[in-house]
Design goal:
- By secondary structure, the protein is mostly helical.
- The protein has one domain.
- 81% of the residues lie in helices and 0% in strands.
- It contains one helix and no strands.
Length: 118
């Protein structure tokens, strides 16, 4: 030691240097741990990606199949409604024709139609 210097300031400087070294090592260790965690997470996700892809493909194919069934069902229902409507229109025309073929005709009000007498 030089004249007028004490040992305490030197220890303080050394202590500060040691603390900074420890902080730097801690920061490096934290960064290394964080990088290792990210690498492990990426490996887990990467391993699961084929499964995700297969599940997505299965979901898409099943959704497509259901959509096709609904579309086919809707078309069949529309054709069924059109056939029923055509049948009803035909039935109404036949009834109208029968009424016109009856004595008194369908065009006259009921009160003026000829009544059949026994």
């Amino acid at each position: 030691m030089l004249d007028g210097e004490s040992a305490a300031p030197t220890r303080t400087v050394l202590t500060e240097v040691e603390l900074e070294k420890a902080r730097a090592r801690t920061a490096i260790a934290k960064a290394a741990i964080s990088a290792a965690e990210k690498k492990a997470t990426a490996a887990i996700v990467a391993a699961a990606m084929p499964t995700f892809g297969a599940l997505a493909a299965t979901l898409n194919s099943r959704t497509s199949a259901v959509d096709q069934q609904l579309t086919t069902g809707a078309a069949a229902e529309a054709f069924g409604h059109m056939a029923n409507r055509a049948s009803n229109v035909d039935f109404a025309k036949r009834i109208g024709q029968r009424r016109q073929d009856q004595p008194g005709g369908a065009g006259r009000p009921r009160a003026f139609r000829q009544r059949r007498r026994c």
